[in-house]
């Protein structure tokens, strides 16, 4: 951060006054993208830090497994509803304002967690989650400052931030809570989120879109100007190719989403892992995520068409489903994890890139918000569906479901001609 501060000190006044994308040189755009990566990595680090903390905090307050499920469901619903609202906010007030809102909400979130000395306060601490969308905020910044040809590669590198967050956050949360107490990670998250807010205020330009896009935004938002509108969601889905790609995005990753929701139980019952071994496995996933999205996704995006990569990711998902149906040990799962991470990362990056290109630039934030609601939707309905599948049919059921769904989607993508049109400003 200090290095960035030294490089940008001479241009600080320009950025604070609202520098447009047209006046941003290539070096300046790359700098803004790097700052977005830093904010995303820190945000994910603090998020994963508290994810490992909440079960122990809830247990110390007397929260049982059913209550913990309610707590997770409430957070999922808030994220689901807030994703689109956050995207609309970013479209109307700018990516910088949206990032500041996300970081400030995270600060309030950790403040309430640090004060959670009883179960009602712990449930109350979930409320700021409605505006905690650091990754969509960073995606909005990157979408505004990149050209369509650069977008997939730049968005793909956000997965590297995810890897950093899951490794650093999980490790820090465990060490801090063990050595210094269960509330110490919340204090670190509070201070870190405040620093993140300051970074967004100082280094993200107040206007990241080109002037032409900014002028267009002012005249193309919905007449009501409301932050949540079903009519606006339906309007976005009517653009060529949007509905088809969004359906693929939702259903291709849904079966593996169910598996990941049940993974903590599966790791104990099916794989027989201890808590420490589960932590090592999560770190392994984080390393794979960093390698795949940092080195593989961007390079492939610059060499292959987006529709080709979408088909490849769905086909690899189907192969992963077959592997999951046949796996018996944790070592089998470690082998499957590599193509799994590749398919998951590629699908998320390519669909986000396609969908933001298919809508007007004034609606990219709303589109990213809708995309960000897919995972909270899975976390909301997933525990019930995943629990039934695991109890009635076992671990292999997740693999067979993954195989059947993605084979169907692959055939659909081969036969249908999805009209992918880049929306011109």
From TrEMBL:
Keyword Cell membrane tagged: yes
Top-level taxon in the UniProt lineage: Eukaryota
Transmembrane recorded as keyword: yes
Membrane topology classification: Multi-pass membrane protein
Transmembrane regions: 35-57, 69-87, 99-123, 182-204, 245-268, 280-301, 308-324, 330-351, 397-414
InterPro entries, per database record: MFS, MFS_dom, MFS_trans_sf, Tet-R_TetA/multi-R_MdtG-like
Cellular component per GO, a single term: nuclear envelope
GO molecular function: transmembrane transporter activity
Record-given protein name: Organic cation transporter-like protein 2
Species this protein is from: Setophaga kirtlandii
